Amino acid sequence: MTPGDIAGFYAKRGDLNPEDYIELDFTFECAGDPREAAAHLCSEQSTAQWRRVGVDEDFRPRFAAKVLDLESEPRPSGFSIPVECAVQGPVHAVRATIAHPHGNFGPRIPNLLSAVCGEGVFFSPGIPLIRLQDIRFPDSYLAAFEGPRFGVAGLRERLQAFGRPIFFGVIKPNIGLPAEPFAELGYQSWLGGLDIAKDDEMLADVDWCPLSERAAALGEARLRAERETGVPKIYLANITDEVDRLAELHDLAVAKGANALLINAMPVGLSGVRMLRKHATVPLIAHFPFIAAFSRLSGYGIHSRVLTRLQRLAGFDTVIMPGFGSRMMTPEHEVLDCVRACLEPMGHIKPCLPVPGGSDWAGTLEGVYRKVGSVDFGFVPGRGVFGHPMGPRGGAASIRQAWDAISQGIPLAQHALAHAELHAALEAFGRRA
Amino acid sequence: MTPGDIAGFYAKRGDLNPEDYIELDFTFECAGDPREAAAHLCSEQSTAQWRRVGVDEDFRPRFAAKVLDLESEPRPSGFSIPVECAVQGPVHAVRATIAHPHGNFGPRIPNLLSAVCGEGVFFSPGIPLIRLQDIRFPDSYLAAFEGPRFGVAGLRERLQAFGRPIFFGVIKPNIGLPAEPFAELGYQSWLGGLDIAKDDEMLADVDWCPLSERAAALGEARLRAERETGVPKIYLANITDEVDRLAELHDLAVAKGANALLINAMPVGLSGVRMLRKHATVPLIAHFPFIAAFSRLSGYGIHSRVLTRLQRLAGFDTVIMPGFGSRMMTPEHEVLDCVRACLEPMGHIKPCLPVPGGSDWAGTLEGVYRKVGSVDFGFVPGRGVFGHPMGPRGGAASIRQAWDAISQGIPLAQHALAHAELHAALEAFGRRA
Questions:
Q1: Same domain, B265 and B411
Q2: Which CATH number goes with the domain that contains A344?
Q3: Angle, to 10 degrees, between the axis of helix A304-314 and the axis of helix A332-343?
Q4: Both B11 and B67 in a single domain?
Q5: Could you report the per-residue pLDDT of A21-36, keeping only the tens digit for each?
Q6: Is residue B415 over pLDDT 90?
Q7: ipTM beyond cut 0.85
Q8: S-S: B429 plus which of A156, A310, B21, B361, CB 3.0-4.6 Å?
């Protein structure tokens, strides 16, 4: 590129109409001049300097992505991750913010993904390593999306659960049980105090535990638990399946008694979720398979908060995400980025409930609460409820007892003296903490 | 895990019914004992050793994934990619083949992806770095899928193009032109000898170039080109959009004159593609946005051939993929892996046409042909046709002239002496080669 070519891919924020652009934060490592590399990145992800042969034209003013900010520093040690590529030159680590004109593709999730996570971003000359760190949408773009139907407030209303976290549990054994014994586990966990008993994200509409039987058994168990406890409960059924079955499985599961639905967002596709959102009458909860495949590394791929924002945009009321602690291999700052992406303002799009999960039990609740910094989160043990020595009822009770202690400022060990379930949890799981 | 726990996640291939399992090849780096790490990997991706409290049960014989083969070697230098994780212990590089019982989830793409690219794979204890290298399906699993309707043979039949590569071209400028001048470029490229003029993968159903107008203009131009050349042509329209618009856009584009359709596979979601395949009456062509985000690195993510296989399974007749040369940052062996994944036997699923693309022009055709080793591929220049100094008609002609030279064993430079378009291509693009 000539200096003039490069300059055409740079702009000042004040010179652009912010409603016409989404903003993208990238970090990348390039070989060669960072300023030229960022111009290529804009060119590749929008319109290159194409002109028809024999025609004097320039599509950049309207159609090009443009660099707004650029910072770089040399990396004398070279690329931070080994890559097979032929680019030569001194390596720089770069931060760039780019304005991308959304009129190029419109308010369509697949076309948005193609533009900001596509060939143009990951095959830009001189940039073998790049990570999309964040994305911001103007209100004009958000206006075309419905977002969550219920959101945090709607979910709390349904559960009549205010001023505290929402207590989920993943029914275990996750795979292998037929509907009736599986439902019994959910029933016991509701009696113990869970708000939401859920299918594992791996549990599909399979012949050894068909969704119709499972939803019927859990739906009936839920009604019994609601009668016995006097409070609303949710059975969260996993309807992850081919997109052309989602509406049918929604109707089936809801008719049988499921009152929220789990969908593995990326395996189904965010567009399929947006389609389901138009049809759905119950809260939609996202699970996170496939996301780590492109979000785990700090130097390559897509930051998981981008996917959190997109899941909220697509209409999820709740986003389950890898949580705190070494088990989920996600740095604390990144978990918090994802939590904020659920809750912070996003035009007219409602907040959704963040559920940072992974190897939780009564003893990890306070740490999650302190880190999140508010009660607007979901807590989702598996073993901590269903592997509790007193069974799922005792396991759920241990979680609620832990919350009682936390909210009253009583140390867990002290509260456990008078609460057998919490005591048993500390005995069984405490050594791992 | 105890030695007994670990042993329950190992099996001999001969002791399993191969029709009940898909096979997965992984490479990973682990901290600690590789044999235990591989057992965890099986446990996490299928059923852990869950048992109900007070019940003596073991779901592993039927529901567990099982290690078939394991090789490991120490990595005294530690992990090959920096990772934030707390696992400690000597690092090993491991290759493992795992049999995963597909009855756990059934012949559903989202549930397959959840199992083999999901939480269980990317959050397995002690394994911060892992790459799914390959996947193999038994006929019992493939039987539930239709695969491509046309495949390589069907596409050749439609084009009456036998014994040679299929010549595509990406109409450029890719973004910004209204329908009429855009169609004129396609028309010229067909007259010059292209089989298939295509929309860029970034070109959506946008207000400045609506699909209905574009398909009508290109459809009309295609019929004129067919009349004038006497051979069939294809206008490949990009209908990438929200999944609930795919069938409608298929019908619209085909009614107006498009006779093949481009879909960005991962942004739309493979399940959305499988849905469209049931409806479609024309060949479906995949483009590759988003895939590099998880396939670029040799030490983490998912090998792109896995996605090639899944795109074929979902029903694509053609898979466009990053091709040869440093521009596309993909090692040659990996491009060839993807080419083979299109063409090699896959039960009753038809072969699909591989199109390894990236910065191609007349001068790169022979190299691609030699590397692929057969004529069963597509060749997809952008600039090499539409940036040719004599325009797209000359650009397309230069490609066909190059093929004539190759198939007759004549050096390009010699053939160019009597063929102005090839000569101009060598002059314009040759210096970059």
A1: yes
A2: 3.20.20.110
A3: 20
A4: yes
A5: 999 999 999 999 999 9
A6: yes
A7: yes
A8: B361
Q: Based on the domain organization, do A50 and A180 belong to the same domain? A: no
pLDDT at position A432 is 52
Q: Would you state the structure tokens that stand for residue B37, as one six-digit string?
A: 């790490």
Same domain assignment for residues A132 and A215: no
What's A78's domain CATH number? 3.30.70.150
Same domain, A93 and A220: no
The answer to whether the beta carbons of residues A278 and B243 sit under 8 Å apart is no
| Residue span of the structural domain in which A95 resides | 3-142
Where is B134: in which H helix or E strand?
strand B129-136
Count of alpha carbons within 13 angstroms of residue A342, beta-carbon side: 27
Residue B165 to chain A, least CA–CA distance (Å): 24
Weakest mean pLDDT among A47-61, A245-259, B28-42, B310-324: A47-61
Question: What pLDDT, in 10s, does the model give residues B355-372?
Answer: 999 889 999 999 999 999
Set of chain A residues whose Cβ sits within 8 Å of the Cβ of B172: 48, 50
Closest to B199 in 3D by CA, of B182, B216, B184, B212: B182
| Probe site for chain B from A46, A242, A313 (most B CB atoms < 10 A) | A242
- Chain B nearest-CA residue for A130: B293
Q: Do B192 and B331 belong together in one domain?
A: yes
Segment B285-307 mean pLDDT: 97
Among A10-19, A63-72, A79-88, which is the least confidently predicted range?
A79-88
Q: Which residue has the tokens 């942004």?
A: B267
For A182, nearest residue in chain B (alpha carbons): B52
Q: How many CB atoms lie within 10 A of CB B223?
A: 13
Same domain, A301 and A406: yes
Residue A264, sorted as left (phi over 0), alpha (psi -120 to 50) or beta, turns out to be beta
Measured between beta carbons, the chain B residues lying within 8 angstroms of A48 are 172-174
Q: Are residues A138 and A156 in the same domain?
A: no
The amino acid that residue B171 corresponds to is I
d(CA B409, nearest CA chain A) in Å = 30
Domain total in chain B: 2
Angle between helices A270-279 and B270-279 (to 10 degrees): 70
HSE of A361 in the Cβ direction (CA atoms, 13 Å)? 26
- pLDDT per residue over A358-403, tens digit each? 889 999 999 999 999 999 999 999 999 999 999 999 999 999 999 9
Residue A384: both structure tokens together: 């901590």
Residue where a domain stops, chosen among B142, B169, B200 = B142
Handedness of CA B370, B373, B374, B378 (dihedral sign): negative
Cα–Cα distance measured from residue A379 to residue A168, given in angstroms and rounded to the nearest whole number: 6
**Using an 8 Å Cβ cutoff, are A246 and A275 in contact?**
yes
Annotate chain A with three-state secondary structure.
Answer: CCHHHHHCCECCHHHCCHHHEEEEEEEEEEECCHHHHHHHHHHHHCCCCCCCCCCCCCCHHHHCCEEEEEEEEECCCCCCCCCCCCCCCCEEEEEEEEEEEHHHCCCCHHHHHHHHCCHHHHCCCCCCEEEEEEEECCHHHHCCCCCCCCHHHHHHHHHCCCCCCEEEEECCCCCCCCHHHHHHHHHHHHHHCCCEEECCCCCCCECCECHHHHHHHHHHHHHHHHHHHCCCCEEEEECCCCHHHHHHHHHHHHHHCCCEEEEEHHHHCHHHHHHHHHHCCCCEEEECCCCHHHHCCCCCEECHHHHHHHHHHHCCCEEEEECCCHHHCCCHHHHHHHHHHHHCCECECCCCEEEEECCCCHHHHHHHHHHHCCCCCEECCCHHHHCCCCHHHHHHHHHHHHHHHHHHCCCHHHHHCCCHHHHHHHHHHHHHC
- Judge: A122–B298 Cβ closer than 8 Å, yes or no: no
Last residue of a domain, one of A91, A123, A142: A142
- The radius of gyration of chain B's CA atoms, rounded to the nearest angstrom, is 24
Say yes or no for a CB contact (<8 Å) between B240 and A292: no
